From TrEMBL:
<dbReference type="Pfam" id="PF07707">
    <property type="entry name" value="BACK"/>
</dbReference>
<dbReference type="InterPro" id="IPR011705">
    <property type="entry name" value="BACK"/>
</dbReference>
<protein>
    <recommendedName>
        <fullName>BACK domain-containing protein</fullName>
    </recommendedName>
</protein>
<feature type="domain" description="BACK">
    <location>
        <begin position="45"/>
        <end position="102"/>
    </location>
</feature>
Length: 102
């Protein structure tokens, strides 16, 4: 399903891409959460801005999905900066920087 969304986006099938995004959020929520770092990286790599609000909501509610992920170190620099610039993280700044330093 996610691969179809990449293809639809690359072929500029905007309506199909939006429908696939909605389907992913509605029926594949657990997959999106379990592959969160991959999905969040892909948002910026493939310009999936339509999935960004969903992911930002997850980050706002549960920062551990990013910071305690074994894939945290695979985040692209610009993705990490995007997260660090958020004002709604429910963590102390020192705790965030400890993860960044790792």
């Amino acid at each position: 399903m996610y691969e179809l969304m990449i293809v639809a986006d690359e072929l500029e099938f905007g309506e199909l891409s939006v429908k696939l995004k909605n389907h992913l959020i509605e029926s594949k929520d657990s997959w999106l959460r379990s592959h969160f770092t991959f999905v969040y990286n892909s948002i910026f790599k493939h310009k999936f801005k339509n999935l960004e609000p969903f992911c930002n909501n997850i980050i706002a509610k549960n920062q551990n999905v990013i910071f305690k992920s074994v894939e945290f170190t695979s985040l692209h620099e610009f993705v990490l900066l995007e997260i660090l610039e958020r004002d709604d993280l429910q963590m102390q700044e020192s705790e965030i920087w400890n993860y960044v330093i790792k």
